[in-house]
Design a protein that fits this description.
Elements: H1 4-13, E1 18-24, E2 38-39, E3 42-43, H2 44-53, E4 60-65, H3 68-76, E5 81-83, H4 91-100, E6 108-111, H5 121-130, E7 138-144, H6 148-151, E8 158-161, E9 167-171, H7 186-189, E10 193-202, H8 203-210, H9 216-221, H10 225-230, E11 235-239, H11 250-259
Parallel strand pairs: 1-4, 1-6, 4-5, 7-11
Antiparallel strand pairs: 2-3, 6-10, 7-10, 8-9, 8-10
Helix pairs in contact: 4-8
Amino acid sequence: MPSYTACSKILNKKAMKILAVIPARYASTRFPGKPLAMIQGKTMVRRVFEQVKKARFITDLVVATDDDRIATEVKNFGGNYVMTSPHHPSGTDRCFEALQKQQNPFDAVINVQGDEPFIHPEQIEQLARLIQPEDVSIATLIQPIRDNSQLFDPNVVKVITNPSGKAIYFSRQTIPFLRNTEKEQWLESFVFYRHIGIYAYKTEVLKQITSLPPSPLEMAESLEQLRWLEHGITIQTGLTNHEQFGVDTPADLEKLINKI
């Protein structure tokens, strides 16, 4: 994987213009209105925005939404927003529309999950470093899995990489399968990684991937990054040890509030 020092030198040599986008839609099967959920006096979308705002190397930051209520909230706390179509199949597509509506050009876009209210600014900075090299098209983060509840949970996406940190495959299944080892011993026998679903894309690559048709592996696993791999686009990963606090359901939010 690219070292911190190497990427820092690249950043110092040429300042890349990076747009951070927070996709925030109102409709959600499991948690309608999630971006407006309150966490200790602040909405979720505000907490995400404020965390990303702390990150270095970001040229501009915008919330991409399809709902006037979210737009009003962003405006009220002094953030920037752009209205996007309610029909986008993914946050990636919403990010591309947000990019298209910017007046200034950007070299890269960072897609920040709108349900990570305590995302670390260092993770955003890490993505900004990872996307710098010319041979990196897309960058994302991964994290060691430390307990069996995550290891065998199909909602936790796993990833395997090659020695240089490029993703080989993502799956809801536990990968790799450890033959001749009892499942209770897997974590003691191998280092497994989970995928942290934030991405950085070169702008020309973002345009390319949003025009690709759904692929067989993507439809099988319901993971859009498999479409990119199937079309030969490499995904550089970076290792993070920061704990994640993603919110998919009201129950997740309650657990999060009880933690802080």
